[in-house]
From TrEMBL:
InterPro entries, alphabetized: CDC50/LEM3_fam
Subcellular location: Membrane
Any GO CC annotation of this UniProt entry: plasma membrane
Official protein name in the record: ALA-interacting subunit
Length: 348
């Protein structure tokens, strides 16, 4: 073999890659999805389109707002605050001592119906400055215990209302312990108006969250007593006042359903309410109110939705008119859309 040939062979072998070795690459596999090249709608917002969009939104939202406001205004509502008036004048300097004392705390109130209220008339109690959303309060309960008798001794999350004398409390926790216990009786022209307390809770709660074979045990047996008591002979699934109360409120001012009056109340009727002022809201400067209300297809009285629709619709209508005037008075020439990146060819 000649020296020249040997040199050429050695030089060529030094620069060549070994046979059978593949060159690796970190480049991902090409696809239109990863490269964001899928077909897409890319509208060009011309002045005409912007003006038309705002105009349509305004024309749709404003009538909707008017309809919602009319529906809300059609709800007849009577609100009566009684927590202060139902404390005797001699005890108003120390309301807490009065509410914690023994004896009946009967209070009579008179309500005048201003507009006819078609049945059913819903009876609510309203509490203010009561923070049911407090973290410790909300966590002081055991949902498994409410549903199954096998979990009645699982009270580790219910402190401080977990047991009495070593025996578990059913239902345990601060939420159940603070059950609202004011009562209301209604009469009109010396004739009693019955209040239906059946079906005031969510059916899903009765069927799925409160057991049909779970009965109260040791409830309100220790001191201090927080609120109302429960019938130990009735299962929790039938104690609807408790079920309504256990669905905690998100805000410090809330209403909960007490019952339904299934009789029409006519304008000018005088309703006498005999109530038991038992619930202590005086310790935290809370307020108690009795509410009688009808409903509409939107629910109870709430002007927020109608006002929101009117506000947004008015703003859209104002912007549509403003942009239309600017476009007519001082028009601006649009650019050529063919220069947009998605309209240009790949080679261009």
């Amino acid at each position: 073999m000649s020296p020249t040939a040997s040199t050429s062979t050695v030089g060529g072998g030094g620069s060549a890659e070994p046979s059978g070795v593949k060159k690796t690459s970190k480049r991902p596999k090409y696809s239109k999805f990863t490269q964001q090249e899928l077909p897409a709608c890319k509208p060009i917002l011309t002045p005409s389109w912007v003006i038309l969009t705002f105009l349509v939104a305004g024309v749709v939202f404003i009538p909707l707002g008017v309809i919602c406001l009319f529906a809300s205004q059609g709800v007849v509502e009577i609100v009566d605050r009684y927590d202060t008036d139902c404390v005797p004048a001699s005890s108003r300097d120390n309301k807490v001592a009065y509410i914690q004392s023994e004896g009946d705390k009967i209070c009579n109130r008179t309500i005048t119906v201003t507009k006819t209220m078609k049945n059913p008339v819903y009876v609510y109690y309203q509490l203010e400055n009561f923070y049911q959303n407090h973290r410790r309060y909300v966590k002081s309960r055991n949902d498994a215990q409410l549903k199954s008798p096998r979990e009645e001794r699982d009270v580790k999350t219910c402190a401080p209302e977990d047991n009495v004398g070593g025996e578990p409390i059913v239902p345990c926790g601060l939420v159940a312990w603070s059950l609202f216990n004011d009562t209301y009786r209604f009469s009109r022209n010396s004739q009693q108006l019955p209040v239906n307390k059946k079906g005031i809770s969510w059916k899903s709660d009765r069927d799925n969250k409160f057991g049909k074979n779970v009965f109260p045990k040791n409830f309100q047996a220790g001191a201090p007593i927080g609120g109302g008591t429960l019938d130990p002979k009735k299962p929790l699934s039938e104690q609807e006042d408790l079920i309504v109360w256990m669905r905690t409120a998100a805000l410090p001012t809330f209403r909960k359903l007490y019952g339904k009056i299934e009789t029409d109340l006519h304008a000018g009727d005088t309703i006498t309410v005999m109530l038991q002022n038992n619930y202590n809201t005086y310790s935290f400067n809370g307020e108690k109110k009795l509410v009688l209300s009808t409903t509409s297809w939107l629910g109870g009285r709430n002007d927020f939705l109608g006002i929101a629709y009117l506000t947004v619709g008015s703003i859209c209508l104002f912007l549509a008119v403003t942009f239309a005037v600017l476009y007519l008075v001082k028009p601006r020439q649009l650019g050529d859309p063919s220069y947009l990146s998605w309209n240009r060819s790949a080679g261009g």
